[in-house]
Design goal:
Blueprint: H1 4-13, H2 22-30, E1 35-36, E2 42-45, H3 50-53, H4 55-67, E3 72-74, H5 83-92, H6 95-118, E4 123-126, H7 129-135, E5 145-148, H8 149-156, E6 160-168, H9 174-180, H10 186-194, E7 196-203, H11 213-222, E8 227-230, H12 233-243, E9 250-253, H13 254-263
Parallel strand pairs: 1-3, 2-3, 2-4, 4-5, 6-7, 6-8, 8-9
Helix pairs in contact: 4-13, 5-6, 7-9, 8-10
């Protein structure tokens, strides 16, 4: 059966980490300057872990939303998407666990959507690729438009300039593809990066998985530049952990790159 402690933690606190992490996460989100549970066109799902794992990227996304005049609100009690439950079910190859994960993910999504509806939001932005993985299961079943953040940025960003040579790792998104027989909207990421003048990319092998030590070693060996760009917060965290000994190498996410290209501020 699926992890009962994890399920209980999500139902009680909303997030996978449990009640003990709620206030710390809330404090990080307050720093973004976004509204919470006010009338808005979009609801932003910030995810359980990413506000503390990649706070600079989330701040950059908030800056871009303000720059483009996106009417956006946070939810007062955001619920975990359940992607950790899906990963457990995929690893165990249990049909029963997969059915249970679908039911729970649907429950948690509905808890988020009910709050978004009260705020008048008909569109949902998922910052986390894991959230997008789970929500992909329900896109045809709910009236709201659910977007992974690069899809929205591709609609908004028409071009900018950033003098930078960087490596680009799209991520393998193994569990996403295993669950949904498709991947996230990486074409949107490529189009966004392609609109930045002065940006030169060395594309890393996206079939290599950052979660597998042997494959991560191959990724690290292939890095040529002082900056590595990825659209995925989980990949960013894994890459940063691996590259921490390389003081001259920095991992950045797509929102940071786009904000630098738009604002002219240094990356």
């Amino acid at each position: 059966m699926l992890n009962e402690n994890l399920i209980a933690a999500i139902r009680e606190s909303g997030i996978a980490q449990g009640q003990g992490e709620v206030e710390g996460r809330a404090a990080l989100l307050r720093q973004l300057g976004l509204r919470t549970m006010e009338r808005a066109e979009y609801a932003l799902i910030a995810s359980c872990f990413l506000p503390s794992m990649v706070p600079e990227a989330l701040r950059a996304l908030a800056s871009l939303l303000r720059h483009y005049g996106i009417d956006c609100t946070l939810l007062p009690k955001e619920y975990c998407c359940g992607h950790l439950l899906y990963r457990q079910a995929l690893k165990s190859k249990s049909d029963e666990e997969m059915k249970q994960a679908d039911v729970l993910a649907g429950e948690f999504l509905e808890a988020n959507l009910s709050q978004a509806r009260r705020a008048g939001a008909g569109k949902v932005i998922a910052f986390c690729a894991g959230c997008d993985m789970a929500y992909q299961r329900f896109r045809d079943e709910v009236p709201e438009e659910i977007l992974w953040y690069p899809t929205l940025l591709e609609r908004l960003f028409r071009g900018g300039r950033l003098e930078l040579k960087a490596d680009y790792y799209a991520g393998c998104h193994y569990f996403y593809r295993k669950l949904n027989q498709t991947g996230p909207d990486l074409e949107a990421v490529s189009r966004v990066l392609g609109r930045i003048e002065g940006l030169e990319l060395n594309e890393l092998d996206h079939q290599l998985c950052c979660m597998r030590p042997g494959e991560m070693e191959k990724l690290a060996t292939a890095i040529r530049n002082r900056a590595v760009i990825t659209p995925c917060g989980g990949c960013a965290d894994q890459l940063q952990r691996t590259l921490k000994a390389k003081e001259d190498c920095r991992v950045v996410m797509l929102p940071q790159v786009v904000w630098a290209a738009v604002s002219g501020q240094p990356l």
